[in-house]
Amino acid sequence: MKHWLASTALALCLAVPALALAQDYTPDSNAKPGGAIVITYKDDVATLDPAIGYDWQNWSMIKSIFDGLMDYVPGSTALRPGLAESYDLSEDGLTFTFHLRPGVKFHNGREMTAEDVKYSLDRVTNPETQSPGAGFFGSIEGFENAGPDGLSGVKIIDPLTVEIKLSRPDATFLHVMALNFASVVPKEAVDEYGADFGKHPVGTGAYSLAEWTIGQRLVFARNETYWRAGVPYLDQITFEVGQEPVVALLRLQKGEVDVPGDGIPPAKFTEVMANPDEASRVVEGGQLHTGYITMNVTQPPFDKVEVRRAVNMALNKERIVQIINGRAVPANQPLPPSMPGYAKDYKGYAHDPEGAKKLLADAGYPDGFETELYVMNTDPNPRIAQAIQQDLAAIGIKASLQNLAQANVIEAGGAGTAPMVWSGGMGWIADFPDPSNFYGPILGCAGAGEGGWNWSKYCNEALDAEAVKADSFKDPSDPARLAMWSDIYVKIMDDAPWAPVFNEQRYTMKSPRMGGEDALYVDPVSIPINYDYVFIKE
């Protein structure tokens, strides 16, 4: 599914009648149960705890182990019921009453109840959990005082009914209830494993974790008592980690791998597309994605807006896009062009090295300065970082490259120890199709704390207040609301905590035996793959 559909889906999917229709998904008629597949990744998985995991590699894994109250139609951005089979919304738009499915069981065999829903929401918003997704739940009553005593706005009505009261209308709330962070977990399992729950996950999802050999592989097994009839199809999924993308592609060509999780290596893209048989198995999908450079605004010299603007002006984005075979378009703002709220008339910063040098001189750095640029070590990111390094050197900024595993870059960004981060391989792909999703976690004050995803540590309280107003609409597609979001992102670009670089398309490949519609392999929500609905044709 191309990501331009997201804007039309958004206006429809929050209404109750549309929700009732969305649950009627018809899987591929050729789908049949059984079999096992192999997926490869270069890096190991950091955690499978839904309250903590927040990178594209573990996102779809977590989504297959856990469920939330809401879900999405496979391969789509349209909402459908999850663990809640229905809900009621009060006339003032502040109180949601969710009615849970009876008989849903955790992988440990215990039946899920409303108490588990409350526990899970209390846990993810408790500061002690240090969840990077806590800010998503900011509209729930009592969020400001969230702690060991839980959220005052979440109440158990009976074992199958939970009420969630908001402090303000929130146009994104049902999407939030479909996020991994809102997954329902059993308290006894969290209590048993503590900080290691992410290595011993227990959920209600289509698959359970059968094995995890750190640095080698994870094995998922079919949940035989899964509450959704007919899925999943596969008996087993093996995720082999530590696999270089080029090696993974060779193994795919030999029939040893079914999907290379890191996609087609850019250096091999032209070769793959020149082979008709292989090209026929390439899957392309649009993404609500932006790749960007963060600058830590709390540290000199990036505490000066002139320096940050100079970095924006130094970049030759068209040249950088060519490094990835033209599989992207240059970006001029945080939002991708297909996202509602994109500021179509905003031109951004032109490529102007001489103007950038003048800004550096005005900021007190006529001879430039030295800094570090952190980058994920999977191709093509080091090559992209080298191009950025060259552009910065042209205006006097000497940036040494720190090529690290994804988890290490994320850790440095969250800790605030990285002066600059190239987000490639971790660049923002929307959690849900709404402009607010590009703000709170990565540009808002809520994401700027320790461990947060706002690696620029940019916190503008005035814009935070504007963001709250923009989301206090009952209709997410209200033109006035979208105009407010456009204005917020233009103001952010004036402050320049980021240098947006490009908006990327996703390309992957599957083995001849893999079945299921292409949209499942570039799922806009279960990024990168919807494991619950793919199957083996043989």
Automatic annotation (TrEMBL):
Keywords: Signal, Transport. SUPFAM superfamilies: Periplasmic binding protein-like II. It comes from Paenirhodobacter populi. It holds the Pfam family SBP_bac_5. Gene3D superfamilies: Dipeptide-binding Protein, Domain 3 (3.10.105.10), Periplasmic binding protein-like II (3.40.190.10). GO terms for biological process: peptide transport. This is ABC transporter substrate-binding protein. The keyword Transport applies.
